[in-house]
Amino acid sequence: MSDIKITETLFQLIPFIESKFMRPVDQHYAGEMTPVQIRVLLYIKEKSSLTMTTLANEMMMSKQQLTPLVKDLVLKKLVQREHDPNDGRVIRISLTPLGLKWHDTLTAYTLNMLKAKLDNLDETDLNCLYNALTDLYNVLQKI
Question: Which one, 70, 125, 141, 142, has the greatest CB density within 10 A?
């Protein structure tokens, strides 16, 4: 298969996943959290603690764009800024206990929403989806 065909298929898959799976979560939390703030919290949870520079680079945002988002999350008591114990000049961002609880709530809601969507599939489709997702995940980790 050509690289062009793979690239086009992957390109089509991204907005499809966004509309089917990400947007419903964003809409559920609209008013209390922006989609970008949700992504920031998820990324911080994944990494446990990181600097603003690292977070900005990983999220492909400038620090100037990220600063007000993180400031709002600090005001909501979902994240905290702490001095790095190895270098007091460095500020690290991590989730607070409330942020961890919020993450758990988000995860539970998302899993329930996904399960409801999967309830419409028969066993053959579920097995096919599982195998495809497992393969996709394993391959994408290499990129």
Answer: 70
